[in-house]
Every structure is written in structure tokens, then in C-alpha cells.
Amino acid sequence: MGRRKSTNTTPTSTNSSNNFEGANIRFRDADDKEIASNSSNLDDSIVAVDKASEDVSMGEPDVSFFGCDGEDDKTSADYYFDSYSHFGIHEEMLKDAVRTKTYQNVIYRNKFLFQNKIVLDVGAGTGILSLFCAKAGAAHVYAVECSHMADMAKQIVETNGLSDVVTVLKGKIEEIELPVAKVDIIISEWMGYFLLFENMLNTVLYARDKWLVDDGVVLPDEASLYLTAIEDAEYKDDKIEFWNNVYGFDMSCIKKQAMMEPLVDTVDQKQIVTNCHLLKTMDISKMVPGDASFTAPFKLIAERDDYIHAFVAYFDVSFTKCHKLMGFSTGPRSRATHWKQTVLYLEDVLTICEGEAIIGSMTVAPNKKNPRDVDIMVKYSLSGRRCVVSRVQFYKMR
Length: 398
Known about the structure:
Layout: H1 77-83, H2 87-95, H3 97-108, H4 111-114, E1 118-122, H5 128-135, E2 140-145, H6 149-159, E3 166-170, E4 183-188, H7 201-211, E5 212-219, E6 222-230, H8 233-239, H9 252-260, E7 263-265, E8 277-283, E9 294-301, E10 306-319, E11 326-329, E12 341-352, E13 357-366, E14 374-383, E15 388-397
Parallel strand pairs: 1-2, 1-4, 2-3, 4-5
Antiparallel strand pairs: 6-8, 6-10, 7-12, 9-13, 10-11, 10-12, 13-14, 14-15
Keywords: Methyltransferase, Nucleus, S-adenosyl-L-methionine, Transferase
Subcellular location: Nucleus
Domain Methyltransferase: 119-192
């Protein structure tokens, strides 16, 4: 998948009647009045910040629409564990410096958390986090990995002379028994695309409830999902509108399917048109599995006159138990990670003026048939000077 470009070409939609060039656009009314803006910039810090002041009212999700799966019975769970048996996916994650160095810094700079403690590494992969914990002074680390990579992890531990500290256990967390009754720390890199796609969150919560001591620590212990909106005419035309005319043939039936599947890709920060909005913050130390299903309202305020072709979701994770708050962001204004961002294309091309707002809500829930997949419903409306629209769209990450 190639890197996306910052695009400023004229949309073909009849909803957008103003030709434009360059990055800065100003739609003007007859009286040429300026528009007041209440927008704010995205936080581009790699260190997560305290978001207590950004409380979002959460409603109970209405997931009745998620039953309409049709004939599509394929599941990512069928190949999820096998895919992690190949070294290639681990190479990509290990080379993600934002991801791996953050975990390394969390462990090495907070040795007081790990000294003489029993650690459980959930979804250990190559065992890199377990090795970090061992070097930080952990009394013992139990590295649990379900895929065949567990065999490689055992060899890696032996090769690095840490077999007396790190024990690799092969199997599912839900099916194994640890040699100890309780652990002091649970560490895991459980996050998936869109935070919740093909993630291991429920596995971490299961391990927490079964083995973590009452005053134990979960790392990371906080994850937040955000939404913003972008101009993306060129890329949308290449990925979506392409199906309208394929060598002279109408293949628009595929276009409908393509619209429902969020695109995981890198977004250029120059494409961002609105502020960002916090959708949901999850406290991993206290939440229950059902909290991963939610409905959250949003309000995206335009920071300039432009066209909007897609919403973009990304997440931050935080390690709040450290001596100094640490974490990272997967947002388009932060250093790139292998998670990239998640792009949800809109049926409409929205013509928006600076200061105008897109109001809506997003409902997120695991797919009923395939829990590692995610169903998303977005309701949005814009009542602006150049565009009035109200729509509900459904997406399926699988």
C-alpha cells in the first residue's frame, strides 16, 4: 500500500461547484463576510497528555443494525493466529520505532515498577517485551504466545541467556495455566488497526481478572480513539470512483463494497480540514469487555474552507503509572507507525466553510459472527452555507 499524497484537485461531485487550486481556499458569500473559527489544532506530541478535561458523553450503542452480514461468513479469526507465525509481521512491528522504543523506554526508565516483580506478557510474539522486562530486573516473566512464533521466542530467550528469568508458554491465555497464582504486572501490545480491529483487548482483560494482584499494574493502561476529517479528492477518485468506469464497463457494484471497507493508510497532515475530537477513552485497568462497544457523539469544526471526502480515525495509548507520563499517538500529525490511520470515505463530498461544524455520532461494536472484526456506523450532518447534508453510513473492518 503506497503512501497517500496531499491532494487539492477539484472534486467531480455536483455537490462541489467551486474550482480551486492550492492548499488554502476561501469560499466567499456575496457580502464577503469573514467566518469566525472556534477550531483547535491536533495534538502532535508523541507523549500522551491528560485528557480528563475532554470528557465525552457516551450513550448506549444501538447495535441492532450489525446483524445484516448477508452471505459474508469469512472471519479474520480463521487466519489471525497463523498470520503471527510468520517472521515478517514481527519484523514490521519491531521496526516500528515509535511502538517498540516507547515500550523499551517505559520499561527501562521505570525499573522501580519491575524490580523483583512477576510479569505476564500477553501475546508475546518474539518475546521482545519480556526481554526488556527481564533486563529491567523482573523476578520472572511469563511470555504467553499462541502462534508458532512461541517456538522462536523460546530459542531467542535461550540464545540471550535469559531462560532463568523468562518462561515462554505456548497457547491461548484462556486455555493455559500459569505456574503462579498471581502476577504483579501485565504488559501487552494488544492494539489493532482502528485500535479495536483484530485486537487482543479481551484477552488482556481476561488475564487481568484471572491473575493480576489487586494493586497490580496493566501496561499500557489507557487508550483513546479520535476522529478528524480530511480533503482526499485524488485518492478517493483512485480507490472508489475508479469502479464507475473500468475500461468502459460499469463496475459500480464493487464501489459500494469498497465504500464500506475502511482504508488503513498514511494520511498527510496537510489534508486535515477540521479539529480532532476525542471519541472514547478506555481505562484498561478497570474496563469490562463490553466497554469496547460504544456510541460517541462528535463535532468537527472546519479550520479552513475546503472539501471533505473522508473521516479519519486514530488512537493514542498512555502509560500513566510511570514516573513520568509516557505514551504515543498514531495520529497524522505524529511520527508514523505501522498502524497508520483509518480512513472512512463519505458518500457525499462536503463543501465546508471555516468555522462550520459537522455534527454526528459513531457507533462501534465487534461483529457478532467474527468478534475480531469491527462494525461501525456513522451518522453525520452539515448545515452550511454551501452544503446541507444528513446521512448514515455503515462500515465493516475485516
